[in-house]
Design a protein that fits this description.
Blueprint (H helix, E strand, L loop, with lengths): L2 H7 L2 H18 L1 H4 L31 H37 L1 H15 L3 H11 L4 H11 L1 H15 L3 H8 L4 H9 L4 H24 L11 H8 L8 H28 L10
Helix pairs in contact: 1-13, 2-4, 2-13, 4-5, 4-7, 4-8, 4-11, 4-13, 5-8, 6-7, 9-10, 11-12, 11-13, 12-13
Length: 280
Amino acid sequence: MSRWTKRLRSDPAAWAAAGILALIVGGALFAGVLTPYDPLQGDLSLRLQAPSAQHPFGTDHQGRDVLARTLHGARISLLIGFGARALSVVIGGLLGLIAGFRGGRTGFTIMRAADVFFAFPSVLLLIGITAALEPRLSVVFAALGIVGWTEVARLLRGEVLSVRERPYISAARALGISEPRILARHVLPNCLNPLLISFSMGVAGTILAEAGLSFLGLGAQPPTPSWGQMISSGKEFLQTAPWVSFFPGCVLALTVLSLNLLGDTVRDALDPRFSRGGMP
């Protein structure tokens, strides 16, 4: 039995997180089946109706079903969360791999570029990029992917610096094997665990960042359903119709919590130096 399977079987929190995340993903995939309402079509005669059998999450200020918008909004948040984080891992992993293996001026240039990114708070950098361009989901996706590469590059560079000094790398070089082949067949496979850990631990933060940008009006634009945008549009009705913001906020919180718990489980399974809570 693998270490991952053992860790998962002995961790009820991970099982609960996986179950919650599966429900949210299933709701996003089958949103059109689970609710008959159009997330974009409103009916002012149904404006700000409290939760009921017909509208379990109530309706918003334009008479749109909050449950339908929450489920369809999950598609955007999950797609950007996983996709943008994957882009960060690919960019950062490639640059970290080159910086660690080549070293010298190439490695110095890459890491100084990372330092420039680190000099700016990531939130302000994201706001600056999205505000400078037309606010839309493609811009948010690219911005989140680009801003997140630096930590991945630093992490992988440290691993590569250790791997490149091992005897089998020296033997491959002595045999005249090309550098790209050494990187692909000998270095990268021994550095996959840090990349998987970085990906799993970073998805939740990416989803939160997307929600924050949408809350500020720099992400998904109305009437496109997005958790951050839904929370923002409902803040004016917190006293009279709190369900407009409450339900998408709860689903966002559950998604982030589940991803963080699963990220901890992946880290614990792939890196035996750490236990729950990050203590050695």
